[in-house]
Amino acid sequence: MVKIALIGAGSAVFSKNLTGDILSYPEFRDAHLACMDIDSVRLEVAEKVCRKIAHGLGANPTIEATTDRRHALAGADFVINMVQVGGHASTLVDFDIPRKYGLNFTIADTTGPGGLFRALRTYSVLEGICRDMAEVCPRAWLLNYANPMAMNMRAVASFGCERAVGLCHSVQGTINHLCWYLGIESREVAFLCAGINHMAFYLQLRHRGEDLYPRLRELGGRFDIYNDNKVRFELMKRLGYFVTESSEHNAEYCPYFIPHGPEMIERLGIPIDEYLRRCRQMGEEFEELKRRVDGDEAVEVNRTQEYAAPIMHAMVTGEPAAIYGNMPNHGSITNLPAEAVVEAPAMVDRNGVRLLAVGELPPQVLGYIQPHVVQQELFLRAVTERSRERVYQAGMFDPLTAATLTLDQIVQMCDELIAAHGALLPELKSL
């Protein structure tokens, strides 16, 4: 029997989708699902969701719910991590303090002060998960969904956890969106995508041998399609390639849009504070899910595009699967450092996940993502050296922050964030 530990299962809407994916495979219908969360209320909802999904699919898994992480991990074959350390309260801090300095965000979960401090909060939890895994399930694979993906996976690698891959849905989600623009079935399109999480670019995009970029550039000139993705079409116009993650995300990853004032923000439809609105919506979705599982209503299950279940299926059955994963580079992208966490094509089978060779990124793409690679390195040095100065430096090299604040303001803002997050962060010392 395969055992799957879901850490942070109280993210009940997301764990619902993953559970539906897992139990839709015949090989996993008698799996052992160990749901773990520190929030007992959310954990109870997640357990009820799992049971309803199993009943709806005619599966017969062993389902348990526990607040004891080590118990959930014991003997696991796969560990799915979905934790968000600090929850909504910490997210508000990540928005409110930078806003005092004139620094505005849309999502703030990947890079910049928001992504940096989310990673700092998550570091110790990831360290504990990896330590427990080494002791109670040393052969398990860690499938990480927690953001900020690249910084978290740098941390995981630093703990010596080699059986780990970071997973996102932006590559497969965006290719479907592009094919919708182009009027082509996505299964007919051959593509190569590479970079770092949320900033990977479609380097090749072909349909039956035809390069699709000329058509995509033409479509980008259409009012209706351009308006659907203004920032990404602006970036494609200048960089030559389409980026994976959304316009609202990429608007805050670079200095070209938000720092240029309200008119630019309005013209490009950049939704400042979008993640705060989504948090409210996610809270409403959780309450609706809670109401449904407490009643007699069935929980609807549809196979998603998430990679977790196909990865587990490939490892268990030996049937190869092609995915996009976030792992230490080790030569996949030849003009990025070996230890950088990259997002690139990967193959999965009984031997695990391995990145495929991509080669060099075009120089303009490299230039776009390089500051974020540097920030990720400085994050890791901040936590391993317990250094405030490294935190300041990580803030300095974020393009949006650098285009908005002075050096002294960056230091002052970081000090305020360190004080506000308090015990959730590793101890940080000044030189």
Tell me the helix content: 40-55%
Gyration radius, to the nearest Å?
A: 21 Å
CATH superfamily of the domain at 3-90 and 105-168 and 297-312: NAD(P)-binding Rossmann-like Domain
Gross morphology is: globular
Give me the count of strands: 12
SSE series: EHEHEHEHHEHEHEEEHHHHHHHEEEHHHH
CATH class of the domain at 3-90 and 105-168 and 297-312: Alpha Beta
Low-confidence segments, given as residue ranges, are none
CATH topology (fold) name of the domain at 3-90 and 105-168 and 297-312: Rossmann fold
What structural class do the secondary elements suggest? alpha/beta
Distance between the termini: 52 Å
| CATH architectural type of the domain at 3-90 and 105-168 and 297-312 | 3-Layer(aba) Sandwich
Report the sheet with the most strands, covering strand number, pairing sense and barrel closure: 6 strands, parallel
* Helical segment count: 18
Describe this protein's structure:
With 431 residues, this protein is α/β, with parallel strands linked by helices. The chain has a domain at 3-90 and 105-168 and 297-312: Rossmann fold. The protein is 49% helix and 15% strand. It is built from 18 helices and 12 strands. The protein has helices spanning 12-23, 40-57, 69-73, 87-100, 112-136, 149-158, 170-182, 213-219, 223-228, 230-239, 247-251, 262-267, 274-294, 308-317, 363-385, 388-396, 399-402, 407-421; strands at 3-7, 32-36, 62-66, 78-81, 141-144, 164-166, 189-196, 199-207, 210-211, 321-328, 341-349, 352-355. Strands 3-2-1-4-5-6 form a 6-stranded parallel β-sheet, with helices on both faces. The chain has a 3-stranded antiparallel β-sheet with strand order 7-8-9. Helix 2 (40-57) links the parallel strand 2 (32-36) and strand 3.
